[in-house]
Amino acid sequence: MKKIVCLTLISLISLTSFAQTQLEMNEEAFTNFQKADKKLNTVYQKILQMYKNEAIFIKNLKTSQRLWVQLRDANVDMTYPEFLANFREVFVRFV
User: N or C: which end of the chain has fewer CB within 10 A?
Assistant: First the structure.
């Protein structure tokens, strides 16, 4: 009986030590987003530096990036029309 009680207590303690609130999960996700965004920007700057003498490539790269953002936004609008206003408000606040 003592073994069962001890195992139950240990299980409950270990489960609660890994619990997170929604706020904590959101903060962790945002931190991960910031890290990924920083890496992406670093790579983008390296590409710009590598091809700095190729004006046509740079122009086309920037055009493709703008078009990708438009595609991404249109895809979100199509997929989540009911959440559009709230999503954009939250997304713009953090980016």
Answer: N
Q: Quick check: is 9 in a domain?
A: no
Distance of CA 30 to the CA centre of its chain: 6
With 0.85 as the threshold, say if the pTM is over it.
no
Cα(43)–Cα(33) distance, rounded to whole angstroms? 15
Residue 36 lies in a domain: no
Q: Does residue 22 sit within a domain? A: no
Residue 80 is which amino acid? Y
Percent of the chain scoring above 90 in pLDDT: 47
Q: Diameter of the chain by CA atoms?
A: 77
